[in-house]
Every structure is written in structure tokens, then in C-alpha cells.
Fold:
Amino acid sequence: MRMQNWTLGEAFAVRSKHHDSIKALWETKWRFPCVKGVYPFHDGSVEDFDEVFDYLIKNNINDAYGDAYTKAFFPTCHSLTKQAEAANASNNPSQASSLYMRIACLYRISRFPIMNSAVKWEAFEAQKDAYMKATSGWVDPMHEEIIPHIAASGADGPTIPVYYRTPSNATAENPIPTVFLLTGLDGYRPDNTQRSHEFLKRGWGCVIAEIPGTADCPADPKDPKSPDRLWTSILAWMGSKKVFDMGNIVAWGLSTGGYYAVRLAHTHQEKFRGSIAQGAGVHHFFDRQWLNRIDDHEYPFAINPALAQKFGYSNVEEFKEKAKKTFSLVETGIVHQPSTRLLLINGTHDGLMPIEDSMLLLNHGSPKEAR
Structure:
């Protein structure tokens, strides 16, 4: 196999320090964004995480795929839940909301990098419960709706859980422009507080859906065409709600979700005013040579096991061997089709989604925009 000269350069072969241990992860990579309250610690508090990571470090719990990692978060979550319930009982909904946000953030990190056990699913269910309690008092709250998957086929599930949020002036007589947000490998519906705030500030609505192979998404992860059916069902539901301006819908896919933002820009060209693919891995991403190195890059943990599960493979080797032929948007011909307006966002230092894929897209199909 010919070795590709990746734009990432020498960093392609470098193992990041944070992979040495949970202590290294916390001290060299994660505590700083936690202090700042930015991804993946938005809505959280560093004092909560200091407590949890102190326990993880002292007990040498380094495997995030294991239940011991997830269970380490539960005592802090349970303690904060009692405080939130007391705040509600004392008629202090603002304090309760803040506490539930902290709880939801803790559960988010506890279920990283993917739900591969009953314990991690327990954490996700608890996260959703805490998050909806936290948002229930907002002026324009987050809503959940379980919608029928009218286009379901094969191994797809029958219903699709979505979150949505609209400004109070959205009506059938005044439908609003809307962002259709496609989540990623580990960021799901209850992980988009600030984004939804920004959308509403601009008078937009948002609909948030999970991608195949993650969280509650019912689409068959093994079927590369299952997302096409998924979007068809969600768009039909959006049209039935009347409050979304169906002529002004823009998709935004984040990280692994960027792949689907590119795909739907082609498969549902006439349904979207535009699509934003942030960090999309659509072809070279599936190269064995690339996949062989990304466990050492910037993701907090080894990422290949999560990706293999997400794309419906039984193990990492099967994923590396078969995924490119099945899911590459070049191999399957998707990128040769016309697309809606498509904005590609990525950087040359991205060690998970190669910049080569954004560059490749510029040479296929309709003209694209890139940043």
C-alpha cells in the first residue's frame, strides 16, 4: 500500500501525551477546558470533575470503555441530585436548573466515548432526565418529541427521538428559519445548550437529531442509505409542525455528523437552503493508514472501538477492512451528484477528520465553499 503524505505532517505519527493515563488526560488536556466551561465540559463545574478525576486517578481507572470509569461519576451526580431536589422544594428553580445542568454534564462525560454497556446507557438516560429538568424553566424551553419513522426500512427502528426549540413568536402564520443540527460520535441531543441559545438569539429554531449508530438514533448503522430515510422522516415531521419555515432550513453536522451533512447536501439537495459540514470525514478518513494512527491523536481515548460500533461493525479490524468501500462518499458515488450550497469547515491540524477530505470535496460535484 502506498503511504500517503498527510497534510498533518509529522504529527500524524506522534502519540499524544494524554493517552498515557487518566491522570495525564486530566492534567494535560481536560482540566483546562473544564475550568473554562467549554467543550466537552459546557454546562459543568470544575469542582465536580476534580472530585471525580481525583477518584479515577487514585484508583488507576484508565479505561473509559469500562463500567468502572462510568460508575465513578455516579456518587457526585447523586449528591448533586439531592441538592437540586432540595432547591426545587425550596422554590428556587434557578438554582435547581443550574445543578441539573451540572449533573447532565457529569453524566455526559461518564458515558464517553460511546454507549457500549448497560451502565453507560443508564448514564445517558440519567443525563437526558437531568437535562430536561434543567431546561424546563427556560422562557423558550427545549422540547422532546418521538416522531414516526415513516420512511423506515430493513433494520431501522419505528420512531425517532428529536429535541427541538423555537422562539416564542414561531407560529403557523410566522414560521421561522431553522438549523437542523446533526450530532456527533459522543455529543448527543442534550449537549447543545449554547448552540440553541445562539440560534434563538437570531430568531431561528433548531431541531437536533442523532446520527446512525449513536445514542437513540433508530437508523440501521450498517446501512449507508439509512440516514437518507432518517432525514426524510424528520423533514416530513418538521413540515407537519408548521412553525418551521421549510424553505429556510440549513443543516449543520458536527465532527462525525459532518459526514452526514455532506451526504444530505447531495441526497436531499432540494430540501435544504444549505449545509455546513464541520470536520467531515468522507473518504480518506476511512483509509486503513489513517485509522491505524488516529487512536494516538487528539481524541481523549482510543477512538477506533467507538467508530467500529458506530458504523455497525463487530470489531475494529472489520471496520478498518470494510468501511471505506461501504461508507466512502466517493466510492458510493454520492459526491458526484449535484448538491445544495455546502460549506466545509476544518483545519490542517485535525488529527481525526483529515483535511484531505475537505479538499477532495472541492474537486467533485457542485461548487463548494470552504473555510
In short: The beta strands are 143-148, 159-165, 176-182, 205-209, 244-254, 274-278, 341-345, 369-370. The CA atoms of residues 198 and 204 lie 9 Å apart. The longest helix spans residues 93-110.
